[in-house]
Design goal:
This protein is of the alpha/beta class.
């Protein structure tokens, strides 16, 4: 419980009562420096910034434990002085800790007021249930407590907030700087997977990033409502206007139409500016598309300025994940074709799901970077197949239509004051180490038996999906997945007892990855994996026969070009099925 409370109060986005910042200041170092330079060394203490951060995280939990024991907030400075030792403290640096302590006590009180079961039963009997806000609690949202209330989301007219706009600006600057450093030029077109969680969890950080890439700024009223946007002059912007290609999630499409309309209006406004093409990539690409459209087409301008796309109205899939799971693909061109077929529906002002696959293809053909972001450690890119199906599928399609590999970046706003933009490969490595192959996480999954085994299997399937669409997964990751889940006797026994079908899926996906040359396996690991897969098949067959059934499984020990016709037949089924 103390760790949970600490995860709430550790979040820093400029709050005056930030316990992390106060603990750092009290010990003579600044949180901002530790976050910005984790590899640096504090000369006074002779410790790395990363180790000091880890130390502060433990202190956070200790302080929460002290308050959970009933300590009066007024006594908190003395308690911390005892905890840290006077020698470590900066004189008079513990001021303000009393207010932090009161904040933590408020969290504890609201946790104790939670009555989810009572609220549910009350609702079943037709009684009134008190309302309350929703969101991600580990982004400093203790107002969500107590849970068990009739939760609501937010006012879409207030997005992006001013704070989210500043985060979005920093994300855009970091993305542009990274591309400039790697390629020596500005990206002309950034393709973003714009998800509903950006609005629900992060107050529109991604929306702010998209607007700033275009070179426009939201216009807020005094009450925080957004009434439109203003174009930032080029001399003030100090760089070219970057074009965008946006694949909105089905939930964002249906929940925030006004946000889409505002972004669409910004694209059209920027495309119409009388500016040099080398300083306005939106106008440049719009003019190129207009030149390719029939001169007498009355919808030419509208077609040339479509930048927001999604699946057909009423559907919520990117298509690519279905093809990958069905093994119904062979080449990147297949994945690109599927992505175009499923996602070629344009959205914007006076356009809701207009079928424009050629407009999407034209937009993807100029993409330099595909992009998504993480906002909380509670969720990551392996949480859902839609992440690789959409972002990964968009990357495969952009690479195919562009005629060469595009950059694939991942933003990180877990620390809003120290945002980062990294390669997708690095984000995959980070999440694999922090969760999928983390012994603590694995033990947590084991406690859930059948369901836990199934969740492990789903996550490994998504690792395969990211490699199939982006080639962003290192070979060592597949090696370690095989060794950790299939070849480890203790974990193997867990799967055998709780969910052997999940283990079969893991082993089969690994073998498919190797057969498709997505994984250059360690020879010893591969040999053991093949042998283990035969044992798993035998176990499942024995279990099926024990129940009087007939085993219907099959091995895919090797996938060759002889399977192409089979894949293509399955591919046609996927293409024709939008359900």
């Amino acid at each position: 419980r103390a760790q949970f409370i600490a995860s709430i109060v550790r979040y820093d986005a400029g709050q005056a009562d930030s316990l992390r910042k106060r603990l750092c200041t009290a010990q003579g170092f600044e949180l901002e420096t530790l976050l910005a330079e984790p590899g640096g060394v504090d000369k006074r203490l002779g410790q790395s910034h990363a180790s000091l951060l880890e130390k502060v995280e433990k202190q956070l939990v200790a302080v929460c434990e002290i308050l959970m024991e009933g300590t009066d907030p007024e006594a908190l400075p003395a308690c911390i002085r005892s905890l840290l030792g006077d020698a470590c403290l900066v004189p008079d640096a513990l001021g303000g800790l009393v207010s932090v302590g009161r904040r933590i006590l408020g969290i504890i009180e609201r946790m104790e007021a939670t009555d989810e079961t009572g609220s549910l039963l009350s609702a079943f009997t037709g009684n009134y249930v008190l309302p309350g806000p929703s969101g991600i609690i580990t982004r400093g949202r203790e107002d969500i407590l107590p849970t068990g209330r009739n939760f609501y989301a937010l006012d879409p007219r207030r997005l992006p907030t001013r704070a989210a706009w500043r985060v979005g600006q920093n994300l855009a600057r970091a993305l542009i700087a990274k591309h400039l450093e790697e390629e020596g030029r500005y990206p002309e077109n950034v393709a973003m997977f714009w998800m509903c969680n950006d609005m629900m969890w992060a107050d529109g950080e991604g929306m702010g990033q998209l607007l700033y890439l275009l070179g426009v700024v939201p216009r807020w009223l005094g009450n925080g409502m957004v009434e439109g946007f203003d174009v930032i002059p080029l001399e003030e912007l100090g760089r070219p206007r970057i074009d965008v290609t946006v694949r909105v999630s089905g939930l964002l499409r249906d929940s925030f139409p006004a946000a889409m309309h505002m972004l669409d209006a910004a694209v059209q406004a920027v495309a119409a500016l009388d500016e040099p093409l080398e300083s306005n990539f939106v106008r440049k690409h719009t003019q190129e598309r207009l030149a390719a459209i029939e001169a007498d087409d009355p919808d030419a301008w509208r077609s040339a300025t479509f930048r927001i796309f999604s699946s057909e109205p009423g559907t919520y899939q990117a298509g690519v994940n279905l093809a990958v799971y069905a093994s119904a693909w062979q080449t990147e061109a297949d994945l690109a074709d599927i992505f175009l077929h499923w996602n070629g529906y344009a959205y914007g002002k006076d356009a809701f799901g207009v079928k424009r696959p050629r407009a999407l293809e034209a937009s993807l053909s100029t993409v330099d970077v595909t992009y998504n972001k993480v906002v909380s450690d509670e969720h990551d890119l392996f949480n859902c197949c839609g992440y690789y199906g959409t972002h990964g599928g968009m990357t495969a399609a952009a690479s195919h239509f562009r005629g060469g590999q595009v950059k694939t970046y991942y933003g990180d706003t877990r620390e809003p004051e120290q945002v980062q933009v990294r390669d997708l490969t690095d984000e995959v490595r980070r999440v694999v180490r922090a969760r999928l192959l983390n012994p603590k996480w694995i033990e947590g999954m084991k406690r859930h038996g059948y369901k836990g085994a199934g969740d492990i299997s789903k996550r490994t399937g998504r690792v395969y999906g990211w490699e199939a669409t982006t080639q962003a997964v290192d070979d060592w990751i597949f090696d370690d997945i095989a060794k950790t889940f299939v070849l480890d006797p203790e974990t193997r026994a867990f799967f055998d007892e709780n969910n052997p079908w999940a283990l079969e899926e893991i082993a089969r996906r690994l073998l498919e990855a190797e057969a498709r040359h997505l994984w250059k396996a360690d020879p010893d690991v591969l040999a053991e994996l093949r042998e283990a897969y035969m044992d798993i098949e035998g176990t499942l067959e024995d279990r099926t026969e024990a129940f009087g059934g007939e085993f219907q499984g099959g091995s895919i020990d090797i996938v060759t070009s002889d399977d192409v016709a089979e894949w293509k037949r399955a591919l046609e089924v996927v293409r024709g099925n939008n359900q």
